[in-house]
Amino acid sequence: MKGVYRALKLESDGALLVLDQRILPFEEEWVRIEDAQACSEAISDMTVRGAGVIGNVAAFGVYLASRECNGELGCIKRLAKKIRESRPTAVNLMWAVDRMMDVAAASKKEERTERLKEEAIAICDEDGLASRNIGGFGADIIEGLMKNRGLTRINVLTHCNAGWLAIVDDGSALAPVYEAARRGIDIHVWVDETRPRNQGANLTAWELQKSLIPHTIIADNTGGHLMQHGMVDLCITGADRVSRNGDAANKIGTYLKALAANDNRVPFYIALPSSTFDFSVNDGIKEIPIEVRSEEEVTHIRGVDEEGLYKRVRIVPEGSAALNYGFDVTPARLITGLITERGVCTPQRESIESMFKEKL
Fold first, then answer.
1. What string of DSSP letters covers 248-300?
2. So what's the pLDDT on residue 169?
3. Positions of the chain with pLDDT lower than 70, given as ranges
4. Is 240 a catalytic residue?
5. pLDDT of residue 1
6. Pick the catalytic residue: 233, 240, 278, 328?
7. Domains by residue range for the chain, with CATH
8. Quick check: helix, strand or coil at residue 202?
């Protein structure tokens, strides 16, 4: 791909352009990132978000750090550390920075910057291939489910955004949806709004609309009702970190969907590239760090008014406190399977270790 993807692209002068996800779907603007500090800020303020893309941008951030530092390793380490700490939950960020720093340490100073650029591109290209493979394995699940149940149309529920804005180039949770559509399957997606930042209503719906895939936006608390009435055939979400025993951290609210799916016998899958596994974590509920974000994301909302103006408005009484956990952890016992680029495994230590034994 040579550094050109739908959510980010490397310019000929070496700067990185990223699609500003904070203002979608109302405006489509690209933000230019020229140094490590701008990279850290783009990750922390959610100009870019989604586990894979965070890792991709972080990888390019280490390359940009090397440009700033003229290849001097100590300087790169200091800047890379700031990038690595820009968000705490999505492990792809740490994985990408660590992989880039391994390359930096193994490179000669005069070759370091170019080697790091090549490695960042390689990371993105690998994610793109993983996304396509996830799409294929997930679409096979969809086809099998439809055949077994005699369905002519399938309704899939997802939470947050795990499409190409989150992982190049088809995403994780949405990759099976895109592949199913390419296969001619009649598919409809229930799109959770995903409060408080509305990544589902803003980003997932925008992606699906551009791909002409039928979808319906629902309030976050509607999914259980739909499952009770047989209106959901399958749930697929992405993940920001999955532990060695199969617990999965994803956007806040995912756990509640998994509980509802389990109660109504609806299959619940997590789709993820292998870079989202954290094999050092043995108990996701106890060990995965959960990001607590600004109260403002809960107390205020952004959108377009009747005059077409993009605005931020307060939606709670002034002075009321708010608590904003960014993620929750779905325990492995509620997950039907993990859809990876290597195939589908059960959310159990033995199955995960067997599929990824060389990474342990």
1. EEEETTHHHHHHHHHHTT--EEEE--GGGEETT-S-HHHHS---B--THHHHE
2. 87
3. 1
4. yes
5. 63
6. 240
7. 8-126 (1.20.120.420), 130-359 (3.40.50.10470)
8. helix
